[in-house]
Every structure is written in C-alpha cells, then in structure tokens.
Amino acid sequence: MSQTDQKQPTPTSVEGPAGPPAQRRPDPAAALRPRSLTQNSIPWWVGLVVLAAAAVLGAALSALISFSIALWLIFTAVSYVIISYVVTRTRVNRRKATDGFWKNLVYLAFIVALLPLVSVIWSVVSVGVPGLLEPGFLASDMRGIDGSIDQQSQEEGTAVLGGIRHAMIGSLLITLTATLISVPIGLMTSIYLVEYSRGGTLARAITFFVDVMTGIPSIVAGLFGAAAMGWFLSTANSLGLPLPSRSTMGITAAVALSVLMIPVVVRTTEEMLRVVPNELREASYALGVRKWRTILKVVIPTAISGIAAGVTLAIARVIGETAPILVTAGFVVYTNWNMFQGWMTALPVYIYRQFQNPTSPNFSDPSHQRAWAAALVLILIVMGLNLIARIIAALFAPKKTGR
Amino acid sequence: MSKSITAKDLNVYYGDFLAVEGVNIEIAARSVTAFIGPSGCGKTTFLRSLNRMHEVLPGARVEGELLLDDDNIYAPGVDPVTVRTMVGMVFQRPNPFPTMSIRENVLAGYKLNGARLSRSRADEIVEEALRGANLWNEVKDRLDNPGSGLSGGQQQRLCIARTVAVKPDVILMDEPCSALDPISTLAIEDLIGELKQDYTIVIVTHNMQQAARVSEKTAFFNIAGTGKPGKMIEYDDTHVIFNNPSNEQTERYVSGKFG
Ligand SMILES: Nc1ncnc2c1ncn2[C@@H]1O[C@H](COP(=O)(O)OP(=O)(O)OP(=O)(O)O)[C@@H](O)[C@H]1O
Ligand SMILES: [Mg+2]
Known about the structure:
The complex is a heterodimer.
Chain A: H1 2-7, H2 11-15, H3 28-32, H4 45-65, H5 69-91, H6 94-133, H7 147-156, H8 165-196, H9 201-214, H10 218-238, H11 250-274, H12 278-286, H13 291-318, H14 323-329, H15 347-356, H16 365-396
Helix pairs in contact in A: 4-5, 5-6, 6-16, 8-11, 8-13, 8-15, 9-11, 10-11, 10-14, 11-13, 11-14, 12-13, 13-16, 15-16
Chain B: E1 5-14, E2 17-27, E3 32-36, H1 43-49, E4 60-68, E5 71-72, H2 80-86, E6 87-90, H3 102-106, H4 108-111, H5 119-132, H6 136-139, H7 152-165, E7 170-174, H8 182-195, E8 200-204, H9 208-214, E9 217-223, E10 230-237, H10 238-243, H11 248-254
Parallel strand pairs in B: 3-8, 3-9, 6-7, 7-8
Antiparallel strand pairs in B: 1-2, 1-4, 4-5, 9-10
Helix pairs in contact in B: 5-7
Bound molecules: adenosine-5'-triphosphate and magnesium ion.
C-alpha cells in the first residue's frame, strides 16, 4: 500500500520540468471537437437525393449495354454506394465516409443473400398457384390419371385432373412416424449427455458419432433403412414370424428419415438442456427431489420451448427429403394409409416423378403444373412448421415478467 | 422437528483440492449460527456439505463424520435425497422455478416428488408457508402469477417459503440477503428470528452487523493463502466473537483490519 502511495503522480511530475505545457501546445482534444453540434452531419434528404441520382445513373449505364431491370438495379446499387461515399467524404469527413461505405456493403450483402430465397418463393408461387387452384387437387390422388387425360387437358384446355392427396398423406404418415421414433431416442441421448455423462469417454464417443451422423448424405440413410429393414424382415421370416417379406413400405422410410433426424434432435435438445441454469437443478435437489424427477419436472419443462422448436425444425428438415423415401417406400398413384404394407408416395417423390416421368411423355404440361403446385404445398408446409415452431417456443417459454 | 448438527474432523474436497480441512463444530437445535470469513475460505463449501449438496458437483467428496442429532449423514448406505428432505437450503441468488406459479413454487417440494395433496390441504400448506415467510399479504391475491414476476426480495422469501413448506429440521442459508435491499434484508432477518423457534438455522453472511443481529453463535473461517485449505478458526457465542475473540485472526477480521 505504502509503495503505491509513493508512486501517485504529482502535478509537477506530469507537467515535467519545463512547466505547464498548455501555453505552448494546443489542446489535442480541440482538434476532435466539432465547432457546432450539427457540423459533422448531413441533412436526411441527402440520402434520397443520392439514391435518385444513382437510379438515373444506373438507368443510363444499363441503357448503354442493353436495358434490363436486373442490370439497372445492379448499376443503381453500385453507384449509390460510390456516390454516397464521395458525398460523405467531401461534405463530412473520411471516418464517416468509410463507416457509411461499409454499412452500405453490409446492406447489399444482406439483400444479395435474400435474393435467392425471394426468387425461389416468387417463382414457385407464381407457377404453382394455377395448379393449386385446380378443383380437387388436394382431395384426389393420381389413380386413373393416364396420358390420354393429360393430352386432352393440354390440347383442349380442359381441367387438369389428379392431385396430391396420396402424397400428402404419405409425407404426413412417414414424417410423423419418423418423429415418433427419433424424438424419444434423441431426447434421451441428450439427457444422458447433459445430465448424466460428466464428460466421460462414452459421452465423447456419442458426440462424435452424432456429429458424423449429421453429415450422412440422405441417400445413404435411405440405403441403410432399406438394408436394415430387409435384413430384419428376412431374419424374422426365417424364424417363422408372420411379418411381410418385402421391405418397401412406409415404416422403412420412417426409419431412414430417423437416421437423419436423430442427430438434429440430439444437437438442438442438448443445447437447450445446457442453458437450463444449474441453480434450478440445485433448488430442486435441495428440496429432496431425486435426479430423474428433477430432470422430468424441472429441467425439461424449463427447456421445453426450445426442444419443441428444435423438433419442429428437424421435421421441416426431413419433410423435404426425396432420395431416402424413393429407395425405401417407392412410389404409387393411390392413397396408402398402411405404414406396414405396400408402397407409399411422399410429396418430394411425387414432385420428382411428375418432372422426371410425366404421366404423358409427349404432353408434359399438366404433369409440370402438378409438380409446381405440389412444390408450393411443400414450401407452405415447411413455412407452416417454422411458424408452429415459433408459436410453440413463445407459448411454452417460461413466463418472464418483473424482476 | 429440529435437529442439532455435529461435525467431526470434516474434510471437504473438490477432486484432489482440499477446500475445507478439519472442521469440528457443534450446532444446537433451534438456534441461529452464522458463518463469517473472507471470500474463498470455504463457507459455502462447508455449508453445502451439511446437506450433501456438495457431492452434486463432479469429483466433489467429503471425509469425516457429520451427525444430525445422532445419525451420521455420511455413513454408508445413507441416501443423500433423504438427507436433503431434512436439511433445506436457501441460495445466494433467489431461484424460483420459472415455469411455476407462486403457488406451485411453494408446493414444489411436494409436487416435484409426486405427492398427491387435496386442494384444501395444498391451500393450507401454501398459506402457512407464505405466512411463515412474511410473504402472504403481498402475494395472496396473485398466487397463480409466475413466481419470477416478483421482486428480488419477494423471490427470496418465496424460496424460503418453498423450503419451510416441506418442514425440514435444519435450514441452511448461503448469503440470503446479498442481492437484496436493506428493507428486504430486514424482513428476512426478522423472519430468521421467527424461524428459529422451529428450525436449526445456519447462515453464511459477509455482513458482520447481520451476523451480530441474527445469530447466537458465530463461526469464523479463514484461509492461510491461495491453494491452502480453509479452516474454522474460532467458534463461540456471537458477542464473544465480536467483542473479545480469543484468536488474533478473528480479532483482526471482525475489527476490519484485513480481508
Ligand atoms: N466447483 C468448484 N470446483 C473447484 N473448486 C471450487 C469450486 N467451488 C469453490 N471452489 C474453491 O473452494 C474454495 C472455497 O470456496 P467457497 O465457495 O466455499 O468460498 P466462500 O467462503 O463461500 O467464499 P465467498 O465468501 O466468496 O462466497 C475456494 O478456493 C474455491 O476456489
Ligand atoms: Mg460463498
């Protein structure tokens, strides 16, 4: 204490032997300080003027090459960035100009990142809506729809018949079953990882394999599902159990999708369980509550909103899978409600088939229309799932008021 | 309803690190005992070993004997969960369950253990515990609101209500007022004064006036240096510790000369 006391700077030690410096050198703070409060800003309308100028310049430049809206927008954006940099640099200062320049670049990058999403949604909606509005599109399957019907509707303009009822039911059943398989497994795995493992070898091995599973190509998952089910059924049959001998059915697809879903569920629920404060666990232990009850009644309810949202996102991820369903459940034109018998169609497979093998090879327009409409339905389902995830998250979130 | 605590040569470890060494203490039933000492000397560690909360942490363990009346809670075959139903704990930061209402928070000790209560019995327990924690009048009209919607001081009293609702024999409090304003602190100190009619209370505090106000006996803990184990230096009646302690370290600590 006494040592540091002696090292306290005194006025003379700061000023130095030559006396107070204020008289000889100007105060450096004065250079930074503006002389008026509005000196370093430009009026709000300048931005609009610059934008207008950039739009005109962009139009002129694009007209030089050959006018198109895309080209015009690109040139406008580039000239806006450049002009506003120059204006700020000359009117204000370099620091603000650089700041604005980077800000504009960030906005541009955001818009560029958004473009594909917007254009995908736009094209699917614009092409898909006519097919979706076709009467009976959602309520009928493809039974009895053959080339001659499609030829008739393309040549004579009659209504496009056939629909996606069977594909929607297939997608729904397969995804639901996959969820029922993977949520308990994934949830229990993450509970083990977070609550029980204490970072042992087994936990590290599980984490490693979950990471590997995240990267498995979906077609491999499909092949695995088909092979595993085939092996299981042949073993069961050789033991004389009354099980079907063909492995192509809905449940096989659900197994294949679970392979893709489980790692996602494990990862998201693990994150959610980890953020539950330890204090809550200890509060529960201190009341004489056993560990498994604490997990069941304190930890999971506290994390449930995140878990539910994670599960919904995992569903959204697998509902768009094509390849694994194609190789495990096949493809049919009629509605099949039975997960354990016969082939089944899912929406993505339906879209793929309608594009790749139109019902009438020479008159493919009706098939393409159906494919686009089905794609629109798929996008709507995925959007709906994301929305549901948000609603669930908000609904179950621990009530946070006050404090 | 209330039990005495006796520690015999208690060593508390985090893995290989000996955090608290050789504590011998006898705490009478229906009394308030304060633990004081500089930061890091092992007060929390020792307190958590009194209801076997210490071993919840990976690698943490305890050596020695700890008697609750005459039963060694570290004897082989003792279930830590049973110990914790007898020795309740209030934490430094209020931690009501965020998913539960005020009412459910008070009943947490029953509900989480799957006990079935009739509506009227549950109402009785809630009212009695909240009255015991001096919180009833403030919350009686909003028992179904979330517990996290209360002020910090009210939350802490809710946590005390939750602890007394299961009628333990001992209540441990780890700096229960450190996050609270003087008025809430006073409310909790008054509450401690009332609770000692029925419970054995052990309280860790950094506030020496508080220790002097609420406790009958005080234990002073100290640590020789970083990496060294904490030890109980002196344990005596509170007025002795604060007015003429026999140990020089205690003397310097309570008179504010170090720490
Ligand atoms: N989880 C832990 N793992 C390892 N060491 C720990 C852990 N918690 C505490 N310690 C160590 O044990 C010793 C005692 O800590 P403890 O928390 O009991 O101190 P304290 O007396 O409660 O201090 P404070 O007054 O600051 O709360 C310290 O050296 C601390 O670093
Ligand atoms: Mg502490």
